[in-house]
Design goal:
The chain is mainly β and 129 residues long. The protein is built from no helices and 12 strands. The protein folds into 2 domains: 1-69; 74-129, no CATH class. It has a 12-stranded antiparallel sheet, with no helix packed on it.
Length: 129
């Protein structure tokens, strides 16, 4: 990763503490992350595209909404099981190993879209897209 600059800003406002972080790569791609008072990322802006996150009581992302109104929902069990988006007409099923790492991403027709292999420490050693 070619990160040129990382900046953190802490400020107090009427809604509590908000933390912002931003980074830019040599290719001039910019990502700005906004965190709430509990340290949860509630917004991410990447190259002008805004995504908002909704969490459950276990601090897990259960939905995200893009600036054009597309909502993606995540269904969870012990880990993430599937995600869908009515706007994009997509459905993905996630297959996990015993450590909870995602090993396969499947389409709604059970076609393998992505495959990941990990070492004993959870680092990706092989990735097929």
């Amino acid at each position: 990763m070619n990160i040129m600059d990382m900046e953190y800003l802490m400020c107090r406002n009427s809604s509590g503490i908000q933390e912002n972080s931003s980074s830019a790569t040599r290719e001039f791609q910019v990502q700005i992350n906004r965190y709430d008072g509990e340290g949860l990322r509630h917004e991410m802006e990447e190259n002008g595209r805004l995504i908002k996150f909704l969490y459950n009581e276990d601090r897990e992302v259960v939905a995200e909404e893009t600036s054009n109104g597309t909502i993606t929902r995540y269904i969870r069990g012990l880990g993430i099981i599937s995600s869908d988006s009515e706007e994009a007409k997509t459905y993905y099923h996630y297959v996990s190993d015993e450590q909870g790492s995602i090993t396969y991403v499947l389409s709604e027709d059970a076609e393998i879209l992505n495959h990941y292999s990990y070492d004993a420490f959870g680092n990706i050693i092989q990735k097929t897209d």
